[in-house]
Amino acid sequence: MTAVTNVLSGLAEIRPWFQDLYRHLHAHPELSMAEHATADRIVAELRATPGAEDADITTGIGNTGVTAVLRNGDGPCVLIRADMDALPVREATGLAYASTATGTSPDGSTVPVMHACGHDTHITCQLAAYRLLAAKRDLWSGTLIALFQPAEEAFDGAQTMADDNLADRIPKPDVAFAQHVLPGAAGTVMVSPGAVMAGCDDIAITVHGKGGHGSAPHETVDPVVLTAAIVLRLQTIVSREVDPNSVAVITVGRMVAGTKNNIIPDAAELELTVRTYDERVRERILAAIQRVVMAEALASGAPEPDIRFFSRLPVTDNDEAVTARIREVFTSHFGADHVRPKAAEGGSEDFGIIPDLSAPPIAIGDSAPTTPRAGAKQRQPARPDQRSPTATLPISRHCSTPWTPASKPWSSRRSPGWAPRTEPRLGSGAGDHRGDATIWNEPPSESATVATRPNGVSIGPSISLPPSSWILATVASASSTEKYTRQNDGTSSGSQALASHRPAVAASPAKFVT
Description:
Layout: H1 3-8, H2 11-27, H3 36-47, E1 56-61, E2 65-72, E3 77-83, E4 102-104, E5 110-112, H4 119-135, E6 142-149, H5 157-163, H6 166-169, E7 175-182, E8 189-190, E9 194-197, E10 199-208, E11 212-213, H7 223-241, E12 248-257, E13 263-264, E14 267-276, H8 279-300, E15 306-313, E16 316-318, H9 320-334, E17 339-340, E18 397-398, E19 403-405, H10 425-438, E20 449-452, E21 458-462, E22 469-476, E23 484-486
Parallel strand pairs: 3-6, 3-7, 7-22, 8-17, 18-22
Antiparallel strand pairs: 1-2, 2-6, 4-5, 9-16, 10-14, 10-15, 11-13, 12-14, 19-23, 20-21
Helix pairs in contact: 2-4, 2-10, 4-10, 7-8
């Protein structure tokens, strides 16, 4: 029996518990930085975990963040992360445990709240992984850190935890894992090295004009027309200034101007997002945006615009060696037909900030200044030459049901109809998370380093990890609101989604080897 299989053997026993936990979390979502009840439930579950009574649990990191450090002898330190926040979406799934919750948005308005992006799944899978590992401490050696992060949807949860001295509160991880859920084919795991999620820059622009009556535009400087010109010209940056072999996106998602149809306003606002995979491309695009905005204002005879870069996330970049190790073990455990390449996507993730905490703080450059939160310490993601080697592993595993859609596509994340079934999605997530943590002592190849117990007895090949490697796992889920037909083989993948958050475990007592 392999280490992953050995640890997963307890999955059936805890299934009723984590199904109930998932339904509770789904029915009680909370917005970014308001995850107080969610954090309380997580802490209660951590403290009630059999075999983990000696864990060091810390609460309130970065407002609502939680960590649990489970030390189990010598060996690598493995961090697993789950994000906790939900979205301002009104649920329309019809589920018995559908959310009817509301929350307060940043502007003070009351909004509906739903776990429309799967963070309820992430929490459940991570807690299940933690429980399974705590029950099998005789099979592994090292340190496990379970980290529960606020405000991933707001793009500042990881940074807020970092600003609250996270690095001083937990041991330095040797490898870190996280998990996402995505719509996808039943039982598939997508694994790819390199850049798999884009870096993100968010920009707010205020253009100034001279207001007046709509009947006399010649007496004004119309910021609405200026804004329209900027939006159109921005679309030429990628098509005319970026190498066609590179990938980049500029999207203007918000435009606000005026109060009445016959009044030309004094100013207009627009907000945009930039997604890139290459730092040189990023720098060129940001410089081009500033140039275009300034030039269009000059051409319109308008005052100089205000440009504010308010959010920055690094590229999610998988370390090739770590990703190869994960692929090897997942292929062995789940089967080659269920492990596939993962195409890069334009979405972004702040998880990479957490394992990069050892990088020195750097001032934001002139090309991307930020406006800090009051009292917050600003830190730019480390440059490639300053970061510890990282690995992000989006695993797209369908962990809801072993079915394929008969007539309709899967509901997407962030939609009111996002309703992944609890099985086998939850069991799959638990399996992935635990597997990520346990696989480091599974034999990767004949040429791998051989680990030894303290008594000198060989325990088989073990992977040599770079410092602070990290992996982001993505679990795919179909919606229960759609129709499905059973796959020909009728099999399920109930151990899939928990595996991406567990420390390396050997079939007999052994150290995590780095």
